[in-house]
Design brief:
globular; 4 helices; 131 residues
Amino acid sequence: MALDIGTKRIGVALSDFLLVTSNGHSCIERTTDEKAIQEILKIAKENHVEKIIAGVPINMDGTEGFQAEDCKTFASKIKGYEIIFEDERLTSSEAEENLRAKKIDFRKNKGLVDIESACIILEQYLSRKVN
């Protein structure tokens, strides 16, 4: 499972059982951390998740800012799963490009970008694990 953790929404993607592909699952509203974590744990349990890949927005110069710290703090509250942090630099712009290429209008539903970003984060992780 991969998470694109934002201050308002969290995109969720799941891999197939062979750990080859990523599939968008859902977008969780982050009204409170507790509610969002409960939803993540529910999805993880229902889908037999073993690891959670959490995207961390690293700055272009390689440093970590407020958003990266927020992602790590949020992910550390998820108990019972191995959490692996993945650099998610530029995934939002790549996600928007992917959605445009598929002719999907995401302007009124930013959650679609979050879900696509989670897919990209998971794909990055999976491709590195295979190679």
